[in-house]
Every structure is written in structure tokens, then in C-alpha cells.
């Protein structure tokens, strides 16, 4: 790959190169230099350089595009988000008429599912029904608990910024070496 083109790719795009199925690299050196090309092992090292477990799990999901809820990365991210939502609920909710932990798990799973797949246009009632949230009516959720979905989006956005930061540092260190 041309070095000028490689410079224009975002860090997440760079990380995904040569990491998915059917990618072959026949080059033995980078064009115009005697340097060895950056391999998928180097890119895996960039993922390994991320310190936070949940952020690393989110990076793995974004790179490999594996949105199944049976993977370890998905489970790690889901539990992290659910824990954060549960802590917010414990501070905010005064009268508890349902299990907050179960509710936090369901909301985290719902928000993560819709965010990863980029699904939009669903009503709150449809989302709640799809996710199995029967603890309350859609209107109650919309008035009092919709902020939980916003929290998940903000946390995922912050994680993406953190991924970008660590991959950028890793890429700079690769250029120096």
C-alpha cells in the first residue's frame, strides 16, 4: 500500500486492514523503501496496547465486525456497560419496583445491539418489546429512563476516542522503529 494513502486512513481503518477474511499481502517491502510491511501481527499489537478491558473488547468488535452476543469481547463490553448503568440507576431511582440489575443488563444489551448495527427508526415501544423489557410501559421509559441509552452511546463514543488514541501512539512507534 502506498505510504501516502496509508497516512490518510483513520486509525480504526488502518487497524482493520489485513485483519479480515480474504486479505492477502504479496508485498515483501513497502514501495520505495526497504522496510518490511506492517503485518496483521503488528495490528494485533495495537489492539493489545489498549489498557482498558472493555475498550479493548469494543475495539475487537469493531475490527472483526463480530456482533454476536456469544463472544467473550461482546460479553465483556456488555457487562461493563450494564455495571455503569446499574450504578447510575442506584443513585437515581428512589422507589424500586423491579430488579435494577436485570433492567440495567437489558437496557445495556438493547443499546449495544442497536448501536453496533446502526439500526434507527424504531419506536421506544418496539425497542423495549424486542429487548424483553417488560418492567414498564414505553411512556414511562421514555420519560424517566431514556438517558440510559444516551449514556451507552456516550461511553461507546469515549471508547472509540480512546481506541483512536492508543492506535495512533502505536502507529507512531511503528514508524519510529
Compose a concise summary of this entry:
The chain is built from 9 helices and no strands. It is mainly α and 177 residues long.
Structure description:
This protein has nine helices and no strands. It has 177 residues and is mostly helical. It has two domains: 3-64 and 160-176, no CATH class; 72-158, no CATH class. Helix 3 crosses helix 9 (147-176). The protein is elongated, with a radius of gyration of 20 Å. It starts with a helix and ends with a helix.
With helices defined by DSSP (H or I, 4 residues minimum), what is the helix count? 9
Shape, per Cα inertia axes:
elongated
Number of beta strands: 0
Uncertain segments: none
Features:
0% strand; 9 helices; 2 domains
Topology at a glance:
Elements: H1 3-8, H2 11-16, H3 40-48, H4 53-64, H5 72-92, H6 100-117, H7 124-131, H8 138-144, H9 147-176
Helix pairs in contact: 3-9, 4-5, 4-9, 5-6, 6-7, 6-9
Amino acid at each position: 500500500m502506498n505510504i501516502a494513502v496509508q497516512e490518510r486512513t483513520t486509525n480504526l481503518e488502518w487497524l482493520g486492514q489485513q485483519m479480515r477474511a480474504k486479505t492477502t499481502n504479496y508485498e515483501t517491502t513497502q514501495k520505495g523503501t526497504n522496510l518490511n510491511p506492517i503485518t496483521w501481527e503488528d495490528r494485533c499489537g495495537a489492539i493489545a496496547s489498549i489498557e482498558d478491558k472493555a475498550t479493548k473488547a469494543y475495539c475487537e468488535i469493531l475490527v472483526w465486525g463480530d456482533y454476536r452476543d456469544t463472544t467473550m469481547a461482546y460479553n465483556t463490553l456488555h457487562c461493563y456497560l450494564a455495571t455503569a448503568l446499574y450504578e447510575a440507576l442506584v443513585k437515581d431511582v428512589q422507589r424500586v419496583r423491579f430488579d435494577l440489575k436485570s433492567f440495567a443488563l437489558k437496557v445495556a444489551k438493547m443499546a449495544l445491539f442497536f448501536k453496533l448495527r446502526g439500526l434507527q427508526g424504531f419506536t421506544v415501544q418496539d425497542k423495549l418489546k424486542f429487548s424483553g423489557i417488560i418492567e414498564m410501559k414505553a411512556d414511562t421509559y421514555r420519560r424517566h429512563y431514556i438517558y440510559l441509552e444516551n449514556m451507552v452511546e456516550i461511553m461507546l463514543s469515549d471508547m472509540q476516542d480512546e481506541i483512536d488514541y492508543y492506535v495512533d501512539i502505536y502507529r507512531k512507534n511503528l514508524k519510529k522503529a
